[in-house]
C-alpha cells in the first residue's frame, strides 16, 4: 500500500508552491488514516476472506512518502 501524493486530502492542504514531500506530517497522517481503513476492510469486512493474523511494516521512500508491506494469513477455508 503506497501513499499517493495526489490524494485530494493531501493536495487541498498544500500551499501553492509546496509538494507532498515538503509536508511529511500531512502525508504521514493521511497515509495512516487510509492504512487503518484498508486494514479494517481486509480484517473486519473480510474482502479477501477471513483474516486470522496480519503483520505490516511501514517504510519511507526517498521522497519522504510512506508505503506499507502487509502480510495476511487467511483462514484455511478461504485460501485458494
Protein described:
Residues 1-72 form the Helitron helicase-like domain. This is Helitron helicase-like domain-containing protein. It comes from Rhizophagus irregularis. Pfam families: Helitron_like_N (PF14214). It is built from 2 helices and 2 strands; from the N terminus they run ααββ. It is of the alpha+beta class and 80 residues long. A two-stranded antiparallel sheet has the order 1-2. A hairpin with a 5-residue loop joins β1 (51-60) and β2. The longest helix has 20 residues, at 24-43.
The rough form would be described as elongated
Strand order of the largest sheet: 1-2
Low-confidence stretches: none
Q: Roughly what fraction of the amino acids lie in strands?
A: 15-25%
- The tally of structural domains comes to 1
Estimate percent helicity. 25-40%
Notable characteristics:
single chain, 80 residues, alpha+beta, 2 helices, 2 strands, 24% strand, elongated, Helitron_helicase-like, Helitron helicase-like domain-containing protein
